[in-house]
Amino acid sequence: MHETRSFAPPPAFAAAANLNAAKLEQLHAHAACDHEGFWADQARTQLSWRQRFEQTLDSSLAPRYRWFTGGLLNASYNCLDRHLAARGDKTAIVFEADDGAITRYSYAALHAEVCRLANALRGLGIGKSDRVVLYLPMGAQAVIAMQACARIGAIHSAVFGGFSAESLKDRIEDAGARLVITADAAPRGGKRVDLKTAVDKALAGGCASVERVLVYRRMDGCAMQPQRDLWWQDRVPTQCAECEPEWVESNHPLFLLYTSGSTGKPKGVQHSTAGYLLGATVTMQWVFDLKQSDVFWCTADIGWITGHSYVAYGPLSNGVTQLIFEGIPTYPDGERFWRMIAAHQVSVFYTAPTAIRALMRLGDHLPARHDLSSLRLLGTVGEPINPEAWMWYHRVIGGGRCPIVDTWWQTETGSMMIAPVPGAVATKPGSCTRPLPGICVDIVDEDGKPVTQIGRGGFLVITRPWPSMLSTIWGNDERYAETYFGRFGDQVYVAGDGAQRDEDGYIWILGRIDDVLNVSGHRLGTMEVESALAAHPRVAEAAVVGRPHDIKGEAILAFVVVRGERADAIAEGLPRELCVWVAEQLGAIARPDEVRLVDGLPKTRSGKIMRRLLRSIGAGETVTQDTSTLENPAILEQLRG
User: Fold this and answer.
1) What does the domain layout of the chain look like in residue ranges?
2) What CA–CA distance (Å, rounded) separates 201 from 168?
3) Helices H, strands E: what count in the chain?
4) CATH class (in words) of the domain with range 11-499
5) Which of 286, 554, 581, 622 is the most exposed place for a label (fewest CB within 10 A)?
């Protein structure tokens, strides 16, 4: 967190960039002097409207802000129809399946598939404002389903295919969904993941709102319930390949996406059509320096917000070619990502620090076997990236020539908020750098006053509304206001993350506020301790939590995955060595009370560390969380120590 290395944009990259330093400064200046006018200009030029909006920002119901009121548009039209004349034959999606099979969709072919499904949904009585839950594998059909819902004004709610039947049931019932779209099963890492079975179990326990289940046959079939279940392959291909879009008002809900709350009860984050689509569209241009020649690959699943903004909507709205992958980075071996980048000539690669660290652990020799020269830009998303992983990504994957865009944003923000514009902003390993144009960010103390001291942590807040922000929590305006605007007033969005600024004004994310440790009155970010641990040459990955301590309030417990054999590291006294190492890096107050060496961290199938589970283990509590999404459930006993 005290990084001195800085990497200016490579001269050749900056010379060809869409935004150089001067153009970026012009955007910032416009937004600073006329916040609403800036976003109105972006909306007029970046989106296609059926009817232009009358008011840019309506704050009369703050904090329920409404953007571009009076406008009519359709998200699917913006992603598909407007490209057909100029780019109909251009490849929109290259889909690589788990077994390596490849399917390509041009913009014209994708448009036809979306229209066929949209017509099939209308034939089932689904229309504007109806909710449709998607429980699908990662693939082209997931994007087609999202676009088809958007086309007819239905509200989709994508549920990650790794969630349990009980989690799926909760989301279906909260949304009041009339239809579920799923698949019989999906191959993932060479294994079969049953999806329809989970849907049947969820519906057997309730979900009275569901009338039909549409099933895509991805593998060898499944049991079907007469009168309720329909095969996609029987219903969709015979439909007309043209479907008139449903023109919706700007603030019509585009989708719901359920995210964990502090209580563990999921909340349905609701995003509106125009503002959300604008955010996804322009941030792709700014942060990824998007060119029409690019092959873009975001590795996120569509069950998460990154898969919404930078798979299902952003790339298509901008008319570029993207790669979609069904499998995991280590199947059939640890070279899968690098082999795919070389084969498909990927130029912009956007993935999670978790994946980077996992692949880094396998060694430099694996990516070295593949020609990665097509890459021109790298990105990270999902959590702060520790400097050690950043430097490996830069050196080994980018060959020292590719800028890295470390992006901070959330399910609730809809699109990227803080990130380097690669042709204009120097980067530092581990920092997401500065806010994007039109995004007003501050760091405040517990009284809401700006923190001016360099290196002092505080609450990360956004002080003015922005178009892609969530519009509410589905069915619970009160929870929305209390969760995001209850601390410092209805003008200030509280992100829930801690952050600090350095001497250059760069922002460093310290982790979730509930991941901030209070050790003897000192506030320490878990990310800070994790970065110190990850900088040790024998550490592959680390996760830090606090546990109750009678004297200090909280003690630091670190779970560490080592390079090499765990038994050897234990015998050599590495846990004690790491405690001393952290104290040397950050000071004695940050020294962990205990370091547990483990073979892996508890992660969901999307690669996200289940930190709430680690906190329960650290506190000696019985684990009550839903662990059905764990990629490696056998690790639990080892974590308990």
Assistant:
1) 11-499, 520-639
2) 9
3) 23, 30
4) alpha beta
5) 622
Q: How far is Cα 511 from Cα 524, in angstroms, rounded to an integer?
A: 10
Paired residues of 508 in beta bridges: 500
Q: In 3D, which of 277, 212, 243 has the Cα closest to residue 119?
A: 243
| Residue 567 DSSP SS3 | helix
Burial of residue 317 (CB within 10 Å: 0-12, 13-18, 19+) is buried
Residues 238, 230: Cα–Cα separation, whole Å: 14
Strand partners, 187: 192
Model pLDDT, residue 293: 98
Whether the Cβ atoms of residue 593 and residue 549 lie closer than 8 Å to each other? yes
Any idea which residue has 């019989």 for tokens? 184
Q: In degrees rounded to 5, what are phi and psi of residue 175?
A: -80, -20
Q: Answer yes or no: is pLDDT of 459 > 60.
A: yes
Return the structure tokens found at 262. Answer: 């502090």
Which superfamily does CATH assign the domain made up of 520-639 to? ANL, C-terminal domain (3.30.300.30)
d(C-alpha 475, C-alpha 480), whole Å: 9
For residue 166, which phi and psi values (nearest 5 degrees)?
-65, -40
With left for phi above 0 and alpha for psi between -120 and 50, is residue 482 left, alpha or beta?
alpha
Q: What is the pLDDT of residues 579-630, one digit of tens each?
A: 999 988 877 888 999 999 999 998 876 677 888 889 889 888 877 666 666 6
What is the C-alpha to C-alpha distance for residues 331 and 353, in angstroms, rounded to an integer? Answer: 18
> What's the token pair of residue 290?
């998007």
